[in-house]
Amino acid sequence: MAGGGVEDVYGEDRATEEQLITPWSFSVASGHQLLRDPRHNKGLAFTEAERDAHYLRGLLPPAIVSQEHQEKKVMHNLRQYTVPLQRYIAMMDLQERNERLFYKLLIDNVEELLPVVYTPVVGEACQKYGSIYRRPQGLYISLKDKGKVLEVLKNWPERSIQVIVVTDGERILGLGDLGCQGMGIPVGKLSLYTALGGVRPSACLPITIDVGTNNQTLLDDEYYIGLKQRRATGEEYHELLQEFMNAVKQNYGEKVLVQFEDFANHNAFDLLSKYSKSHLVFNDDIQGTASVVLAGLLSALKVIGGGLVDQTYLFLGAGEAGTGIAELIALEMSKHADLPLDDCRKKIWLVDSKGLLVESRKESLQHFKKPFAHEHEPLTTLLEAVQSIKPTVLIGTSGVGKTFTQEVVEAMASFNEKPVIFSLSNPTSHSECTAEEAYTWTKGTAVFASGSPFDPVEYEGKTYSPGQSNNAYVFPGFGLGVVISGAIRVHDDMLLAASEALAEQVSQEHYDKGLIFPPFTNIRKISANIAAKVAAKAYDLGLASRLPRPDDLVQYAESCMYTPLYRSYR
């Protein structure tokens, strides 16, 4: 398994920072091509000696500037844009022009740029992907490629792939079916795997599987870049996915992590259960979200007191995210309280579009909802459920904005000294309530977290800092842990380890400010710690193939992390 500096042909890892690298693999007469290779281009940072050695003299203005100066200039330019989508386009252009500078910008300005390259701006980018499309990023596999998927994978220039993020575009964020235009999600996710988790860019592969779209607006759009047909379903769909999964294993081996992203509920659960025994697969919407939310709850318990088992949980939304979070909470509860899993599930209630999940509805429920249908009279509204069940924790994963109404939030505050309210739906317009509403309606007593970022809130002279339950806290470090251990399967205990590792990163100083997640500025340190815990669990479970086990996994994780500093060329 590639470790820090092992097989590091592009000089991407921290372990090889001081080594000279050769930017050419063939003989050249002009540096023109070097300036158009995003992996090696340094722009005006090429030294005099490099300009002579690599035929660049005259192809660049005479000034020589440092990477820090370039970063300062690009950030200045980005801040001039008033439209967020313009910033997104500028960042994508930079990624295609100068890869290291793109990642240096993202790492050094993570809190400012994370919402640009990922939620919420990436949602708008996907909606307009056909219009803003300039150069292809990632691989597109469509129904036209059936029987030739392996050949398509072989067209990708890199051979040492460690992480694939794949979507079929059917459920992009809370925006619905965006078909082929969902490619913005795998591209954005993998940028974060690199910037936040340190996975090498050359080892990342974004893929969109185009099986059509049921979005009539896109089918009628002259600029739509995907197949103009209704979505394939059933056997035709699953045959293409089966061919894809087999081809990935055949081309890249057993140890490539395949992350399913933004698949519709029915396919997401089916694909995860079907391939988790035979492939190294992970679903961020189900497992990543659950791991981050569990970490937030573990932190929140330090504020409100008691253990997981002492709380009562009510979810609005019983799809991938809701049931995934609920199941992981039950697993953690079962592990620490030594209770049967079914007993732990009984503390967790879910409300879907038809009302509370109860025993009398069990026959009509989808299989992933059934474990959470308990004995209770049928209730149709969230307010009724809150008043009847009296939860200590209210979690929104519905994708529907403004559903935590004033009545609901005030009811939570009426029987809880410190109600825990997580409004997790993305983007911001779909959030169940805002931070300001949560703090105002509970008179400042809420322990609040959201899926999209909210600014600090002033209430009666006190400033409250809302936590952001962002999957980017977990999946980059989780992916790095899987890669550095050479894990061959993902186990639930590895997700629990990631949650516990993230919760441990929250200090008393953070709690004093009302934060239940650590600041994003430390994200690479957080990711290294999560990677170490995940890798340790993979070794303990006998799932790691990289032997012998490193003595210091945190140090080893850091040595394997991508660093965006320019390298010196021979």
From TrEMBL:
Name of protein:
Uncharacterized protein
